């Protein structure tokens, strides 16, 4: 080994690795546990030796000198004892270790010289005590200093060097043997210290790597892999955190949830690559809008995004912020093969006025979004007191539904569908009525959606259909029955199987039955519902698309369904004689159904003027208060008889 490589090895062994902050902190922690013990043992051993030499040596050597060293040791002991409670910074740890490394040599030197200076004053026993003191104390010190190799090396070499040189020079065989022993022990101990220190460094290194890996995993677990913005998991963690803080401070904040209108069409039309590209760009535009530190953006999944607005913004400011989002997403997106335009609907709920915990805040923002999507797509909707009351009402209805005896409380009313030419009935639409023992009469617009939410609508449909079929069995055979199916009936195989079973067991010819479905119900799962609705069509039932014109079905959707009839929604008829647009819409819808060779019923015929306009437009069938309100089963016969008599005058009577 050359002199320079030996030097570099020595330098390496004496170096303190100040550039590894984690190692410094680990060394500091290990030290603060061991150093007080080391100083304590050193002091006890030293005072034991001082005690042996007290009657033999002068006071300055047996009393004052050890007393001076004790002051130094106690200072260091106190420092490390306090250090146990400290959470060190790397800088602090580096300073403490530097100091220890620096002090190790002079302290070791002082104690060693002190003990060899005592040696000449003692008899053989006392001299043996010096040898024992030096040999045993240094072992303890080296073990305690293991975590700082430079200090352990200094102490080992100084103490054992002095020991060896001094005792070899005594020429007393016992001490010479002891000196040689000490050389061997020193070599062994240095090897142990070295390997232990290397293991320690490796362990800390591994810990650092594991922590880094853990942090990276955590980062990835909280990130949406497609858009590289925080994901659903991060959103809820952050929402809970902010909620806890805001609960304590009473600070107002808001959650916005947004959903893309038209994303599905892009996905269907151009494929998933384009859908993914669109989502990435949406993520980028949203990130640009949410630059402020108070905005926390996340992708919840699919085309749903969320923003926590961790600032006390007024309702107007929230509206404006939502407006900025809608504007940003309304601008065209240039994708690989197409330029597309979409819109975003935003629902916002505020804490603590509209919700006081994370989950209801999220649910209320989602509720506002859902309401917004139904009524005003592409805009911002703030969750309001009105929504709060509606949610309470829904909860009451759901509670009443849980307690209801459906067989007894549900009934079916029938509203005639007439030929507009002579106002004679061709069919009756069955409309559900619920007289709850708890809440009295509840409108179907309230309890049908509630039953859908609770997943019990199928049970209701079965009871209602049975009752409707029973009543229809008493009507003339040319009068048809229309029955409304809900989303769940046409989207699940089990639901459909039950409906089919009721129809086949009723004894009524399925071709006398029309089943009404809505666009919204169909669009929940177009493929599944068109497949299930086809089984009804194959059975011979007619299929009517209800509320036509209010949904967002494209003509291609219409084509996918085995429809026989369409019902034009009552909203178009309400002002047909004054509103040119309504007039035109009804006109084109009639033309469309005619071209598609579908029968068409117009809903909401309330006045003779409506009737007149519709007749002029060539509509064939209608339904509405002008002909009759929904009738109880027992009133249908009488109504038909009266209508037959009235037909002679060829004019409908109101109600
Ligand atoms: P819908 O299927 O569009 O039924 C027509 C609704 O319009 C009925 O309200 C009916 O009473 C009302 N109506 C009839 N003529 C007129 C009119 O001239 N002007 C106006 N403004 N309204 C008229 P209803 O009975 O309150 O039912 C509301 C909705 O509840 C129904 O709308 C349907 O979506 C749902 N529904 C009713 N019964 C059932 C049922 O048995 N099953 C399912 N799934 N849904 C039902
Ligand atoms: Ca209907
Ligand atoms: Ca309708």
Automatic annotation (TrEMBL):
Q: Does the keyword Cell cycle apply?
A: no
Q: Which residues cross the membrane?
A: 37-54, 60-81, 102-122, 128-148, 153-169
Quick check: keyword Transmembrane in the entry? yes
Organism's domain of life? Bacteria
* Chain ranges of the GGDEF domain: 251-385
Q: Name one Pfam family in it.
A: GGDEF
Q: What is this protein called?
A: GGDEF-domain containing protein
Species annotation: Herbaspirillum aquaticum
């Amino acid at each position: 080994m050359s002199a320079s490589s030996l030097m570099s090895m020595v330098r390496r062994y004496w170096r303190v690795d100040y550039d590894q902050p984690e190692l410094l902190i680990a060394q500091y922690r290990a030290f603060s546990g061991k150093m007080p013990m080391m100083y304590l043992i050193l002091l006890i051993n030293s005072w034991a030796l001082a005690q042996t030499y007290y009657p033999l040596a002068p006071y300055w050597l047996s009393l004052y000198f050890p007393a001076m060293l004790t002051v130094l040791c106690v200072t260091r002991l106190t420092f490390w004892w306090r250090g146990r409670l400290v959470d060190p910074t790397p800088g602090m740890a580096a300073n403490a270790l530097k100091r220890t490394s620096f002090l190790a040599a002079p302290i070791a030197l002082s104690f060693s010289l002190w003990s060899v200076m005592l040696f000449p004053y003692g008899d053989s026993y006392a001299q043996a005590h010096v040898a024992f003191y030096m040999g045993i104390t240094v072992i303890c010190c080296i073990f305690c200093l293991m975590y700082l190799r430079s200090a352990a090396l200094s102490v080992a070499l100084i103490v054992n060097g002095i020991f060896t040189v001094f005792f070899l020079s005594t020429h007393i065989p016992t001490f010479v043997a002891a000196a040689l022993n000490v050389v061997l022990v020193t070599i062994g101990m240095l090897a142990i210290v070295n390997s232990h220190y290397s293991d320690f460094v490796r362990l800390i290194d591994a810990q650092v790597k594991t922590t880094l890996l853990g942090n990276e995993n955590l980062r990835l677990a909280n990130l949406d892999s497609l858009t590289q913005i925080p994901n659903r998991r991060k959103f809820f963690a952050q929402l809970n955190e902010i909620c806890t803080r805001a609960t304590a401070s009473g600070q107002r904040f808001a959650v916005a949830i947004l959903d893309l209108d038209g994303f599905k069409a892009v996905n269907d039309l151009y494929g998933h690559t384009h859908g993914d590209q669109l989502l990435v760009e949406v993520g980028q535009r949203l990130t640009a809008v949410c630059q402020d530190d108070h905005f926390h953006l996340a992708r919840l999944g699919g085309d749903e995004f969320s923003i926590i607005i961790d600032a006390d913004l007024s309702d107007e400011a929230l509206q404006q912020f939502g407006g900025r989002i809608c504007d940003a997403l309304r601008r065209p997106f240039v994708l690989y093969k197409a330029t597309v335009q979409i819109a975003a609907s935003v629902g916002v709920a505020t804490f603590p006025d509209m919700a006081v915990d994370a989950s209801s805040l999220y649910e209320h923002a989602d509720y506002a979004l859902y309401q917004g999507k139904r009524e005003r797509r592409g805009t911002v909707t703030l969750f309001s007191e009105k929504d709060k009351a509606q949610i309470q009402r829904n909860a009451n209805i759901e509670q009443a539904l849980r307690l209801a005896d459906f067989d007894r409380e549900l009934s079916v009313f029938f509203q005639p569908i007439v030929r507009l030419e002579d106002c004679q009935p061709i069919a009756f639409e069955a409309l559900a009525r619920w007289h709850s023992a708890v809440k009295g009469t509840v409108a179907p617009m309230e309890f049908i959606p509630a039953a859908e939410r609770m997943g019990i609508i199928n049970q209701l449909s079965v009871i209602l259909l049975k009752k409707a079929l029973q009543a229809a069995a008493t009507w003339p055979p040319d009068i048809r029955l229309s029955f409304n199916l809900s989303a769940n009936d046409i989207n699940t195989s089990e639901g459909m199987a039950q409906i089919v079973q009721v129809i086949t067991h009723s004894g009524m010819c399925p071709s006398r039955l029309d089943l009404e479905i809505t666009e919204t119900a169909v669009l929940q799962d177009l493929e599944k519902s068109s497949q299930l609705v086809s089984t009804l069509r194959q059975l011979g039932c007619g299929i009517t698309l209800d509320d036509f014109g209010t949904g967002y079905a494209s003509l291609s959707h219409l084509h996918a369904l085995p429809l026989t009839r369409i019902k034009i929604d009552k909203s178009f008829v309400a002002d047909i004689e004054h509103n040119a647009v309504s007039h035109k819409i009804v006109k084109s819808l009639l033309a469309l159904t005619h071209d598609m060779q579908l029968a068409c019923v117009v809903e909401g015929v309330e006045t003779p003027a409506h009737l007149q306009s519709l007749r002029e437009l060539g509509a064939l069938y209608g339904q509405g208060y002008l002909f009759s309100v929904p009738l109880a089963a027992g009133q249908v016969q009488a109504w038909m008889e009266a209508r037959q008599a009235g037909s002679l005058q060829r004019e409908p009577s109101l109600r």
